[in-house]
Structure prediction request, 610 residues.
Amino acid sequence: MCGIVGYVGDRPCADILVDGLKRLEYRGYDSAGIAVVNEGVLDKRRAEGKLANLVSLLSDDPVDGPTGIGHTRWATHGRPAERNAHPHRKGSIAVVHNGIIENHLAIKSELSDQGHVFKSETDTEVIAHLVWKHREAGHALAEAVRMSVLRLEGAYSIVVLDADTPNTLVAARLASPLVLGVADGEGFVASDIPAILAHTREMAFIDDGVMAIVTPEGSTLRRIEDDAPVELKTQTVTWSPAMAEKGGHKHFMLKEICEQPDAISNTIRGRISLERSTVELPELDAVADALSDVSHFYIVACGTSWHAGMVGRYLFEELAKVSPHVELASEFRYRRAPIDKKTLVLAVSQSGETADTLAAIKDARGRGATVLSICNVIEASIPRASHATLYTHAGPEISVASTKAFTTQVAALHLLALHMGATRGAIDEATLSADLDALVRVPAILESMIGDDTPYMEFARAWHEATSMLFLGRGNLFPLALEGALKLKEISYIHAEGYAAGEMKHGPIALVEETVPSVFLNPRDDHFGKVRSNLQEVKARGGPVLTVYTEGHEDATRLTDFAIPIPEVPHRVLPLICAIPMQLLAYHMADFKGTDVDQPRNLAKSVTVE
Ligand code: AGP
Prediction:
């Protein structure tokens, strides 16, 4: 995601801001900028691309002063470009923002009617205009910010600078992190600890619904809702800079596993209306005809994204009454699959740069297909080669092993299947409303599952030296068996096979012996009895078994050597829930073995060659 840093004090702060942004580079970004105030004059510099571009701009055309804000942007609304980079300015006001403002279009249209002119495609710019409007009406800066953020729906951490209010920053937070750094005669604010760790270890973490007024003399907190004072509690952060980058986790992969509740919230945010029981995906308006009238439907992807596509097939069949062919892009691009004007090709790609997926959609588009993509990176090559894109908004994924990208792809596929079901008149209201309800509950359920590593550690302690493992599931958990095996092999280098459990007796069961553990995905669903029979077949041949089972269904654990409970959920969201044990199991196995979890051998994050 984006990065924020802010400073007030007596030092010229351009270098402090740029240095803070450098410490957030690991998070990924596509443009950067700073704004500073010096003796009542506000100036900003912004550049597309790497921080080096901003540094070079600053050396050609310097700005400096003792109060400033900086930002690295990872595009969510509006393509990566200088005009969309933060800070955004209106009059004396400059703003940096992380998160997504869901109702920005409504605010923009209201302000446009009042004569406001916008210069960017971002959701953020409306904040600068709102604050400026309230300042013009005579409100003090803190009150103007408070009145502005009360209008915002979605998620934000913002920092606001006003040329007319010297030595003050006002920050506010809702569902996006913000931390204050406390030092003698200086105040710091940032989205993440590493940005300010070089200057202070005394930090205060701002809670949701709270704003901070930061000055060199100290900071005060107020509740946004009613302006009531909030106590400032600081703590000493003892993390090393490397630990701070990973949010205190040992690896980026673990950090990204833990980020999934937020990432999925970001995928569904603003796209679901529980009151109206609707999925709102205006970005797909351009392909509305193709969604309602399809002759052939192909999902093309590679690796983990292909597994997400396979989960998608179950969703499209059940919810939209259409059965897509889920294709490996590296195969599909060389096949002569039938394609006509009514063909829909859906590319699924985290990076948006995977060479085979890109080539497959270019070829299909050239032959007349409508191309839709699900992607995590705004304006990457695959979205640019598509007629429309549904972005997952998972935030940058640093670890080579895909985790939050996978679950957000599955959530996006679920939204798309519901949308397509509604467009095609294939889904009834009760199903739509039940699925929307189930989806909005997923982030909290995932949150409750992350934290207790005991069962994973127990299994990893016993089996990290295994040389081969099997992963088995049925129905919509078959793709999760494939994903569990892929996760394990790519980061622990243990050979693993994922299979549809019903296929066991057609070959893989020959591999079962005392040294080959099998992981069964066997929650309480329609497949429970069948999977249990497959499990018995493995036990009868002396194979050790780990079962992922539904909490409280103790009967499921009778035959197993290791057991990992998951909460009971409606079956269509089971893949999202079962992703967590697959990821954590692979992670702890690799960590026990001591492999390079985040950058496993021979693998690249983005595969831009065939
Ligand atoms: C999975 O952990 C891998 N990173 C890999 O399989 C990945 O999903 C694949 O290379 C596709 O990448 P994409 O989603 O960026 O297109």
Observations:
- The domain at 3-244 is CATH 3.60.20.10 (Glutamine Phosphoribosylpyrophosphate, subunit 1, domain 1).
- The chain has three domains: 3-244, 252-449, 454-593.
- The pocket of 2-deoxy-2-amino glucitol-6-phosphate is lined by residues 302-305, 349-351, 354, 357, 400-402, 490, 606-607 (CB under 6 Å).
- DSSP finds 19 helices and 27 strands in the chain.
